[in-house]
Structures are given as C-alpha cells and as structure tokens.
Amino acid sequence: MTGHSPTEMMVVAGARAMAGTRVCFVGIGLPNIAVALAQRTVAPAIELIYESGVYGARPSRLPLSIGDPCLVTGATAAMGMLELFQYYLQRGLVDLGFLGAAQLDRYGNVNTTVIGPYDAPRTRLPGSGGASEIAQNAREVFVLMRQSRRSFVPRVDFVTSSGRGLSRVITDLGEFAHRDGELTLTHLHPGVDVDQVREATGWPLSVAADLAESAPPTDAELRLLREELDPDRTYLR
Amino acid sequence: MSKVVTMAEAVAAYVPDGATVAIEGFTHLISFAAGHEVIRQRRRDLTLCRLTPDVVYDQMVGAGVARKLVFSWLGNPGVGSLHAIRRAVESGALEIEEYSHFGMVGRYAAGAANLPFYPLRSYLDSDLPAVNPALRTVRSPYDGEEIHVVPPLRPDVTIVHAQRADRDGNTQVWGLLGCQKEAAFAAAHVVVVAEEVVDPQVIRADPNRTLIPGLVVDAVVHCPRGAHPSFAQGHYDRDNAFYLAWDAVSRDPARLAAWLDEWVYGTADHAGYLDRLGADRWTGLTPGPARSGTVDYGDYR
C-alpha cells in the first residue's frame, strides 16, 4: 500500500500512543477510529468506555454517535450514567480519555464552549459534555485534531477544561507533549518540517531538543484503516 | 388503577405553560412523540432540561415553546450544530444554564435523593463556574478538601420513553439507561411513554430490570415508535439519516417552520406522524435478534 494522507498519519500516531492502555474513555469521530486501530494492533486488551453508559464495548459497526445501540449489544456492562461517572471515571479507573477541541492554547486548555464572549458569542459551540470531568479524572488525556492557527490559539476564548491534565496532542503535522507546563513539539510526521508546524501554531512554538520523526504508517495499519475500520471513508478523507 | 392515558391527555395534564420539563434519554429512548405534542398544544415559556438537547429540543425551541434551556452538551450528535437553538442563543432570545454531563446527572441525583447538593470532581480551573453561579465549592468537614457542588434539579415533570411498562407505570428499560431513573425520582410528576404496555406479571418476572416504579409515575402513554428518530434498543435503530438531514432543515428558519407544519401541526398525533413517515422507513431500522440469556430467580413457595 503506497502513500498515506495526513489524517491517516494522525490516526495511526494516535493509535500507537495507546500502546498498553487498559481502559479508554472514547469520544466520537477520529478518536473512535484510532482506538479501534489500537485495539487491533498495540493494545489488544483495551476496554472501551462510552459516557453514554457502556463499559467493555465491542461495536459491530462504526457508531455515528456515542449513544449507538451497537455499543450495547455484546458489551461487558451497560449502566446508568451516574454509575459510570462515579464508579469508573471518578474512582480513577480510566487510563486515557480523548477530548475534542475547537480551540487549544499553549498550556493545553481546551475550548468547546464559545467563540467570542460567553454572553454574546460569535459562535455558540456544544459546551463541555463530559470533558470537564474527563480532563480532571482520567490518568492521561489526549487531543487528536487537525492543526491550524484558527484552532491553535494564543489564548482560548473560554476554558471548558483545564490543560492541567492534558498529556499529548496528536495532529496531522506532528505530536506534542505537555512539558514544563506547555505543549512542546516532540515528533514531526514524515515530510513535515518545523516551519510548517510553526506556521500552523498561534503561539511561539516550543520544540523538544530530542525532536523525532514519526515512523510512517505500515501497510498493515493502512489496510486495517481502509478496508476494515472506515471502508466508506467517513472519517479518513 | 390504570394510569394509561393518551399523549394529548398527559401533556395537557402535566405540562402547563411555564413548567420545568425534562424529556430525558441519552441518545436512546428520547420521547420525540411527547416533544411534538407539547408543540401541538402550543405551550409557552417552558424551561427545558436535558443533558443533550438533541433534535427534539431543537424542534421545540424552533417552535417557540421554551424560555430557558438547562443542558450540558448542545449539538446534533455525530452531525454538527442544533441550528434553531444556536440562533436563539446567539440572538439572546433563549436563556441558558450550562453544566457538564456529570454535573447534570449529579443535579438529578440530588433531586432524586432529596439532598441539598451533589459533590463531584469536575470544573477544576474551568471557566464554567465563572458563568454559572450555581457551580460552587464546599469544604469537606472530614479532611478539608474543597470540592465542586451542583444544586438539585427537580423538574415539574419528567417524561421518559421505555421499552415496556405496566398500566401502573412500573417501567423496564434495557440498553443505555442514561439518567432517566434519577430524572424520574427527582420530578414532581412523571410521564412514562412505552413501546409496549404489558401485564404486571411480565414486570414481576424480571424485577431487576425495573428502572422506575409505578410509585413515582403519574401517567402511562402507549406509543410504539414514539422515540423516532432516536432508537429503542432491540425494537428499532437510530434513524441516522434523519439526524443528518435535520441539519439542513434547522439551518433555515423557513424550512424549519415548513417541517413543523407538515410533521407536527399537520398531524393529529404520533400515529399520524408515523403514517406520514411510511412503513418502508422501518425496513432498514429493524435490528436482528440478540436475546439475553435468562436467569432463574427461584420459586420460594
């Protein structure tokens, strides 16, 4: 299999970062694909938790929403959300959670609430959902998103969830880790240079001394993505 | 005594103008039929509570029934925005009170358990408490730890859809359970909308599956497929095509008004809505069987 898209590289990097993860709190969209890929490659023992109230999901199709019936059929447990948030998340049983972000700043603060002032928003976004509690209670938190100056901003308009718990950001250009209180570029994807990342980052970019290049997706990874996990190319355009 | 009534009777009796209403169900079992009847009866000034307002509240806000929205995630799941609500929020026409999912669930739990607040580990360094003064902190009297708290939420009426209930309102649900149990126990009145109204013996044969007892239920409405376009586990699938198509409808106020005219004001009840939807709609939405095993409760006579 030859060639790969930046989005495929991002999802593959996200999956590899989950090596050894046991319990993962999953969102919809790209993280869902990354988790499914990890389950078939580096993290075969991973257990999926969905905030809709499912532990140990084995989805038989790619769910459009996090409340899809395919998450329940064949799962280890289905429960009320109070039980899930209290006993699984707040109890500290979740190793890794994924957050979506409309805006992200250099400290890892995430905004999914408003663009512009809260009381007179230019754009009203969905809000927290489970993000605020996932950020605080999951052992590690990843953001998986395409990178641009529009989304990687000097200061988020609203802190929906604090950057304190955010450990890694994986984008279509490279990978960031939370080091010394700020997001630091640790990996470049093949064919990307630091200037490209700087161009797509709205704050003075901090680059790790040990900056590395991500290994390109393997044939096996690409085959799983294209033939099994997203054959209709719903997410991996 | 049977509590079975029509949807029109239930809404007329338990959803007055100005009421605080929770139509709960997380993606699963959302009573669109109840939402439509509230629109048909032209209720006004409602405070609508739901973790995820979903398309049902987008329709209700678009129809002008609401004054205020209490929520934790405002979107069309897997699709994008709820445009009618977004327009109302951005123009300032709709008041909002915003939490996180755990915060909303905790609010119902405090209401259900008759407690003054619910403590949770969330909102640390978030801007949410700055814009919602109901998000506060208390100090533990045991070790001094400071923790965020949310106030109880006690709806005037909670409306839930379920796979089955008996005539007294004893209600069984399987699949995603959301926060219907907490929202029901927290409310002054409860309306249960059921795919099937079953003999009490069906309920008693499987007591662990009872989510809400008739003890807290005021009315039972028999309304098959009343959760469309959301789903009822084992009965019908989520109509994702409807959710995807809703985006273009709700984006345009004129199209939204035409949709409400055709599908809500233009139908007498949910049976009329289903007629318009047509029988063919269900062919792709009917799952195959995946039956649970049975357990033996034991006979102790």
TrEMBL record, chain A:
Signal peptide: none annotated. Pfam families: CoA_trans. Keywords: Transferase. InterPro entries: CoA_trans_fam_I (IPR004165), NagB/RpiA_transferase-like (IPR037171). One of its GO terms (molecular function) is CoA-transferase activity. Belongs to the 3-oxoacid CoA-transferase subunit B family. PANTHER family: ACETATE COA-TRANSFERASE YDIF, CHOLESTEROL RING-CLEAVING HYDROLASE IPDB SUBUNIT. This is 3-oxoadipate--succinyl-CoA transferase subunit B. The gene is gctB.
Automatic annotation (TrEMBL), chain B:
Keywords: Transferase. GO terms for molecular function: CoA-transferase activity. The keyword Acetylation does not apply. Belongs to the 3-oxoacid CoA-transferase subunit B family. SMART domains: CoA_trans. It comes from the Bacteria. The keyword Glycoprotein does not apply. InterPro entries: CoA_trans_fam_I (IPR004165), NagB/RpiA_transferase-like (IPR037171). The lineage of its organism: Bacteria, Bacillati, Actinomycetota, Actinomycetes, Micromonosporales. This is 3-oxoadipate--succinyl-CoA transferase subunit A. Pfam families: CoA_trans.
